[in-house]
Design brief:
- The complex is a heterodimer of chains A (182) and B (183).
- Helices cover 29% and strands 32% of the residues of chain A.
- In chain A, strands 1-10-9-8-4-5 form a 6-stranded parallel β-sheet, sandwiched between helices.
- The longest helix of chain A is centred in the first third of the chain and has 15 residues.
- Chain B has a domain of 126 residues: Rossmann fold (3-Layer(aba) Sandwich).
- Helix content of chain B is 34%, strand content 33%.
- Chain B is built from 6 helices and 9 strands.
- In chain B, the strands form 3 sheets. In chain B, strands 4-3-7-8-9 form a 5-stranded parallel β-sheet, sandwiched between helices.
- Chain B is globular, with a radius of gyration of 16 Å.
- Chain B starts with a helix and ends with a strand.
- The chains are: A alpha/beta (182), B alpha/beta (183).
- At the A-B interface, α3, α4 and β5 of A face α3, α4 and β4 of B.
Chain lengths: 182, 183
């Protein structure tokens, strides 16, 4: 069952540090900027702690983070729970053998890649990104891990845009977020 | 019992052996230093971060600037451990809101690096982090961005140095700390 953490006293501080930038990257989009959260060491630490408290001791051996803002939140979580960190990247960034997953954007397509051999069959994995909007990128990430026969335990994001219904696009997998933005 | 230096050497050895070299990436003749295999070894990754944290904790550093994208992997854990803010230094048009921008040279052409206006204050003490230093061009651009707003760049820190490319010399009076030097 998916959950958000409205009742934890640290959530208010985290939410207040997220900056909304209007009309970025295009008109009418209210961009949820987490960089201001990163400027507050206590709030950034609280953000990581909330994820770590949830996932520690759950036999999770893989934290997959989506380029590029998933690279900011994923590694501290991985380090704290003793898991490996697996970067999921835009095309042609990862050297060596990769598997690719194409996904649909509002206009056109994009692609996510993962290293061959980064995860082993049966490993339990989290997928981490700063935000879930339509869920397209997270879905592609989950597909990559499942193609490598890992088990996706949960997707974890700092922010959810619930109006975009990304939660429904996660093939029945649970989603955990700290903050919702309408 | 291992001395501090022996313990440190053991960690460096493990880190070094966890880095994978990929020939001819992204183009023929380049031996690419791949840190993703380091990230697959939780102990080696933790040791990497610990070695930086041991050096920088308690030195009154309030800013860790990380260069997109692999600097985003190493910078935040260091920032969290030493109680500093993390400031992402990004490719053009990725940061929303007001930015300052620094152009720098590539082998062919130029690129740009951006930092948010107001992310750092004059007088703050900063580290610049990336996975690797090659020619030093990118690190230089990051140093310039920070110095333009009055920040004191204490040191640049990378996991790997490609010593032959003499990036260290390009940093002028700035110090460079690396864990692994690769020829």
């Amino acid at each position: 069952m998916s959950a958000s953490r409205d009742d934890d006293p640290r959530i208010h501080g985290i939410k207040s540090k997220i900056r909304v930038v209007p009309n970025f990257p295009k008109p009418d989009i209210m961009f949820q900027d987490i960089t201001t959260l990163l400027l507050d060491p206590e709030a950034f630490k609280d953000t990581i702690d909330l994820f770590v408290e949830r996932y520690r001791g759950k036999n999770i051996s893989v934290v997959a983070g989506i380029e590029a803002r998933g690279f900011i939140f994923g590694p501290p979580i991985a380090l704290a729970i003793g898991a490996k960190f697996v970067p999921l990247r835009k095309p042609k960034k990862l050297p060596g053998d990769v598997i690719r997953e194409e996904y649909v954007l509002e206009y056109g397509r994009d692609c996510l890649e993962m290293h061959l051999g980064a995860v082993k069959p049966g490993e339990r994995a989290l997928v981490v990104d700063d935000l879930i909007a339509t869920g397209g990128t997270l879905c592609a990430a989950m597909n990559l891990l499942e193609r490598a026969e890992a088990e996706v335990v949960e997707c974890a994001c700092v922010i959810e845009l619930p109006d975009l219904k990304g939660r429904e696009r996660l093939k029945g997998k649970p989603l955990y977020v700290l903050v919702e933005s309408h | 019992m291992a001395t501090d230096q022996e313990g440190k050497d053991d960690r460096i050895a493990r880190i070094s052996s966890a880095i994978r070299v990929i020939p001819d990436f992204p183009k023929p003749g380049i031996m690419f230093q791949d840190i993703t295999t380091l990230l697959l070894d939780p102990k080696a990754f933790k040791d990497t971060i610990d070695l930086f944290v041991e050096r920088y904790k308690g030195k009154d550093i309030s800013v860790v600037a990380g260069i997109e994208a692999r600097g985003f992997i190493f910078g935040p854990p260091i920032a969290l451990a030493i109680g500093a803010k993390f400031v992402p230094m990004r490719k053009p048009k990725k940061l929303p809101g007001e930015v300052i921008s620094e152009e720098y040279s590539l082998e062919y052409g130029t690129d740009k690096m951006e930092m948010h206006v107001g992310a750092v204050q004059a007088g703050e003490r900063a580290l610049v982090i990336d996975d690797l230093i090659a020619t030093g061009g990118t690190l230089c651009a990051a140093i310039r961005l920070l110095e333009r707003v009055g920040v004191h760049v204490v040191e640049c820190a990378c996991v790997i140095e490609l010593a032959d490319l003499k990036g260290r010399e390009r940093l002028g009076d700035k110090q460079l700390f690396v864990l692994v030097s690769s020829l």
